[in-house]
Each structure stands twice: as structure tokens, then as C-alpha cells.
Amino acid sequence: MSFLSRALTTESKQEGLRLIAAGIEGIGKTTLLASAPKPVFIALEKGYVDVDREKVAIIPMHDASYTDLIELFGELSELVMAGTFEYQSIVVDSLSALERIIHTHVIALDPVSRTNPKLTMLSAHNGYGNAYNVSNTIWQDTLKWLDFFADNGINICCSCHVFTNLERDTISATEFHFTDALLHSPKSSKSFGSRELVTQWCDIFGMLYTSKTPVGMGSGMNTADIDREQGVTLGVVQNARFRSKNRFGLERDITITKNDGWNCIAKAIYDAKGSDYFAK
């Protein structure tokens, strides 16, 4: 097969959307992702009180190892290849929990862990950040699995926890708060971590916020401040207050309604690019 024969045409099947929804606990990440087209949740953590079990399938993986997760991906991929996969979206809840699983796996790969139960990511694999390099490789392999599903038209939706940090502008020396993904990122700007990997990988990195819980405004945000009836906003435009990005040229953040959040995102994409990601 020639490389030219692989060229994509306008008739090629649309890839699934790669979406990351980040935000503080209780703001509605799970509710938003549950509104994706026919979703199946890979539940790496607990917290599904508000999820309609009649509309959403949940695969409990709270105590799973990384090996268990790869085995699951293999099973799902076989269904996709056979044309018998009945879902349109795969939800990974959450990336922060996935990282904990990956780090546990990385430490276990170090033979020293068999005799030293106190081994950490800082000391494993002879230290000096080597464990995080191993972690990056495993993250890349994991994202390849998710790409396989997206390449077959399945939406990949991930939730992610966040933290707010006080930053300093190196030019003006002014301080500001920045809300970011609760994932590893090295202090050196010359290297990268899982935070950078998933940001580069996704089509949309959205930060959920409300008028009562503005992101990038310090660490005093909490679930009690959230008005579930007013809806939330998904920040998708790059700015100086929180991590966000999109590949669709969206110039405004997206207002998310309580019961149909996915289609709010789909409409913004359709208006910008004409691509149809609507949940029908």
C-alpha cells in the first residue's frame, strides 16, 4: 500500500472528538461528559450520584492496575474492529486518577520496589526524574490507545481535577493566580510531563467555571459556591487565568446548560467549522 493511498479525503470518516473537561470538585465535569453521545464510563474513581444509570454505562475500575486498564482497552478494541462496539463515546474519569495508576505501575517496574516499599516517583529508577521519563512513555502509549478509538469515530472524553497556583510574571514581576490540570509537569521548561502531553493531544482542553467560582482567582473555590441551576461555562480560549485550548478556532468560551452540555459544545464547533458532533 502506497502512502498516497492513505490520504484523507472529504469522504473520510470523521474522527471522534478528543475532549478534556477540567474543573474543581462538584462543578459538573461528570454531568457534562455523561451528556456525550451514548457514553461508556471507565470509572477510575468513584462519584456517580448524579449520573443516570439507564443512559450511561459504567465500567468500575476504581481498584484497577495499569495492566487491567490495557486489558480493557484490548477488549474494547476487539469489539470496535468487529463492528460490535455499541457506544459512541468513551469517558475516562479521571486523568488525575489515571496518572496515579500509571505512577504506581512505573514504581512497580523498578526491581528495587520488591525490597523497598517506600520507593517513590522521585527515587524510583535511580532517581533524577528518571521515573517521570518512564511515565511519559507509558502516557504516550495510553494516548495511542485512545487515538485508536478516536480514529474509529468514537469520542474520547476525559475529566481532570485542577489546582490553583500563585505565579509571577517574569517581565512585570506582578503575581497572579493560574488554575491548571492536576497532572505532573516538570519545573524545567526544557522538558515536559503528562500535563503537556494531554494538552497537546486533545482537541479541546476546557476549564469549567461559574460566576461564583471564577478560575484563576485563588484557592478559595469550593463545591458550596456552585449554583447547579445556573449552568457553567467551559473555558476553551487560551488566556492568562487557566489552562485551555481548542483546535476549532473558537474565540469565545462556551455556556454549558445543565442537561445538554455536550450539544452546547457541538453547536460551537458546528458554527465554527461545520463539523457535526451533536448527540442525537
Strand content: 15-25%
Fraction of residues in H or I helices: 25-40%
Number of strands: 11
What is the count of DSSP helices, taking H or I runs of 4+ residues?
6
Distance between the termini: 37 Å
Reading the helices and strands in chain order gives EHEEHEHHEEEHEEEEH
The major pleated sheet works out as:
9 strands, mixed
Query: What is the averaged pLDDT score?
Result: 89
| Structural class based on helices, strands and sheet pairing | alpha/beta
List the uncertain runs.
217-226
Shape summary = globular
The whole-angstrom Rg is: 19 Å
Please characterize this protein's 3D structure:
With 280 residues, this protein is α/β, with parallel strands linked by helices. Helices cover 29% and strands 19% of the residues. The protein has 6 helices and 11 strands. The protein has helices at 29-34, 66-82, 95-109, 130-151, 194-201, 261-273; strands spanning 18-22, 39-43, 57-60, 89-93, 155-160, 162-168, 175-181, 204-209, 232-235, 245-246, 254-256. A hairpin with a 6-residue loop joins strand 6 (162-168) and strand 7. The longest helix has 22 residues, at 130-151. The protein is globular. The relative contact order is 0.17.
